[in-house]
Write a structure and sequence with these properties.
- It is built from 26 helices and no strands.
- With 537 residues, it is mainly α.
- The longest helix has 83 residues.
Length: 537
């Protein structure tokens, strides 16, 4: 995620290009071609570059017939980006399909998605271009109502952006559509509307308007002079942008000028598509008929009919007319699926919530039971430790009373330990905290301090009977073992020493000490030997 959020030094350039690509497409293309693609960082940046470069190429009349440039944008903006990013990407993807020719169905799919995905975009010009291109595709399959509707919507978008030429271009196509379906009233309405805005148009758009106007006159015109004037005006205007000689021939046929019509057809040049071929042979058949060449007229007309049938068959076979219906059905299915998913999700959440409440309740019940059991065990442990401390205190007090001959240092060690135990009992006797973990810890610490007591006892004997301690050291006893022996020196018996230190290895310790002191495995007890050594020291 962090990697995707970083941009290279070219990001600012891409952002700037986006601001002037519409008005200066040549400068935008130059700026983009200077960028080293290998230096672009992340999918977002590569997608933005791919989209801008595709836009610049299209605006500079470079018709791409592959997706090599646009593909990074197609891949990224399928699930990322703004409504404008999606609108533009689908539009230029559709334009590539159109450049490939015979892919109007795929192109229409892209344009329908562009309208849906880019609904909230503020890129009015791209919206207008999408609608305009849709209108052209509708005209190829004779969907005249949709054709007119999309052209008029595109016209309003272009008008709102001050694009007069594009606006009139849409209106001219509307005129042509109304002429074809025989609605002369609507055709005249939009002819007047186009003429009001014609001065602000380029020569190419003016020529296109006059081409459509000639088609209208060829169907509904009555004045020969008006038609000839329109033909001459059109030829003069279109001389720099290419003349539609088929429209000119059709106008000449209207006034019965067969030679002029044939001359116009001879200027037409290469016939590029089936639609032009169809119109060409329809006109040629009529010219032959006017000239009295009936066989040629019939042969040409038969070719025209065969060509018409093939076009109609291709139109019926094409799925273009069903693209919008399929897309609408897909959207309805998606919405229905979304509603079903929401219902399922709500039900699932309810099940999870109820299950969670049951689990929490069960956990709390178990926790309370466990807490009660733990409290019981802690109480039992505390009482066991408390009893152990009482036994130690009583044992040490009895030892002190029965061994009057102990030197003062040893007595002080015993008194200090007994006093420590008594202070604990005094401090806790009024507290109702027998199950308290803090009290439990205090008892454990106090019992573990037996090591300190043994060490202090050893130090006491080191002061009062240094020869005794020296003898133990010469025998190889460590400090803990010497403290162990001092417990015997105090008068404790073997069993009492074992209970006092609470060690399972008591027997092994005694055995090790016996070996170091040179005592046989059986014979004199360790306690008797220790007290004898003490008396001799």
């Amino acid at each position: 995620m962090l990697s995707c959020s970083r941009h290279s030094v070219h990001w600012e350039t891409l952002t700037q290009v986006e601001t002037f690509i519409e008005e200066q497409p040549d400068s935008a293309l130059t700026a983009l071609q200077r960028i080293d693609v290998q230096e672009l960082a992340g999918k977002e940046e590569r997608a933005k570059y791919a989209l801008l470069l595709s836009m610049a190429l299209d605006k500079n009349y470079v018709d791409k017939t592959d997706f090599e440039v646009l593909q990074p944008a197609i891949d990224y903006y399928r699930s990322h980006g703004t409504a404008t990013d999606k609108l533009r990407t689908y539009y230029y993807e559709g334009r590539i399909y159109q450049n490939l020719q015979k892919h109007d169905e795929l192109a229409m799919q892209c344009f329908v998605k562009a309208v849906t995905e880019g609904a909230t975009s503020d890129d009015i010009l791209t919206k207008a271009r999408v609608l305009f291109t849709q209108g052209r595709i509708y005209s190829t399959i004779y969907e005249w109502d949709k054709c007119i509707a999309t052209y008029l919507e595109a016209a309003e978008y272009f008008k709102s952006m001050g694009k007069t030429s594009s606006y009139v271009n849409c209106i001219a196509n509307v005129i042509n559509a109304y002429t074809i379906i025989g609605d002369s009233v609507q055709a005249e309405k939009y002819i007047a509307l186009a003429q009001e805005n014609l001065d602000g148009c380029s020569a190419k758009i003016k020529a296109h308007f006059y081409s459509c106007y000639l088609t209208y006159l060829a169907n509904y015109g009555q004045d020969e002079n008006e038609i000839r004037t329109a033909i001459n005006d059109y030829i003069n205007i279109s001389s720099t942008s290419g003349t539609d000689w088929l429209s000119v021939a059709n106008a000449y046929l209207k006034i019965g000028d067969a030679p002029a019509a044939m001359d116009a057809l001879s200027h037409h040049g290469e016939i590029l598509n089936t639609s032009q071929r169809l119109k060409f042979h329809a006109l040629l058949s009529q010219i032959y008929k006017l000239e009295g060449r009936h066989k040629e007229a019939m042969d040409t007309y038969e070719y025209y009919v065969a060509l018409t049938d093939s076009m109609e068959y291709a139109r019926v076979e094409s799925d273009i007319q069903f693209v919008e219906e399929k897309h609408s059905l897909e959207l309805r299915n998606l919405r229905e699926r979304a509603r079903n998913n929401r219902t399922l999700l709500i039900a699932l959440l309810l099940v999870i919530t109820i299950s969670s409440l049951l689990i929490i309740s069960r956990y709390r019940l178990k926790a309370k039971t466990a807490e009660a059991e733990l409290a019981k065990r802690e109480k039992e442990r505390y009482m066991q430790l408390y009893t152990q401390m009482e036994q130690e205190r009583d044992s040490l007090t009895e030892l002190l009373e029965q061994n009057k001959e102990l030197n003062q240092t040893a007595k002080n060690a015993l008194l200090e330990r007994i006093g420590l135990l008594n202070r604990f009992f005094l401090a806790n006797i009024t507290k109702d905290a027998k199950t308290s973990k803090e009290v439990d810890k205090e008892i454990e610490d106090l019992l573990e301090n037996k090591e300190v007591f043994m060490a202090s006892t050893r130090m006491a004997f080191a002061g009062s009977h240094p020869h005794f301690i020296k003898h133990l050291e010469r025998c190889g006893l460590n400090e803990w073992e010497m403290g162990y022996c001092c417990l015997y020196a105090l008068g404790l018996k073997g069993k009492e020493v074992g209970e006092y230190i609470q060690m399972k290895s008591h027997f092994n310790n005694s055995s090790d000490i016996r070996k170091k002191l040179g005592l046989p495995e059986h014979g004199t007890t360790l306690g008797t030997h220790i007290r004898q050594l003490l008396s001799e020291a």
